[in-house]
Amino acid sequence: MLELLLVAVGGGLGAAARFVVDGEIRARHNGGFPWGTFVVNVTGSFLIGLFSTLFSTLTWYGVPADVARLVQFALTVGLCGGYTTFSTATVESVRLAQSGRLRLALANTLGTLLVTVLAATAGVGVGGLFV
Length: 131
Known about the structure:
82% of the residues lie in helices and 0% in strands. The protein is mainly alpha-helical. The chain has one domain. Helix 2 runs antiparallel to helix 3 and helix 4 packs antiparallel against helix 5. The relative contact order is 0.19. The model has no long low-confidence stretch (mean pLDDT 93).
């Protein structure tokens, strides 16, 4: 039950952070490409890679395994899961395509896939420096 509560709280905080970050970016970049969602998904993917690496090995630092697991769930499934939004990215790509902006739709779809995988890989790599 504690896991569910921590994931729910983390998810709420992540969604609120996404709302703020996306809103700030949209206010500054009023164009065709959905930069807000793109930045959110890239940074969130990096953080998921980082947190999953760091907190999977916290027991090496004397943290009990059950506590490390709770922290990992709260940050990865909760916070990062609430922060990232691939469903919004796909809907934005569909809307771009429907409006005739096929190049932007393709750039958003392929760019999001490629850059988020690279960001997650970088997060895992950075996390690996500390374990």
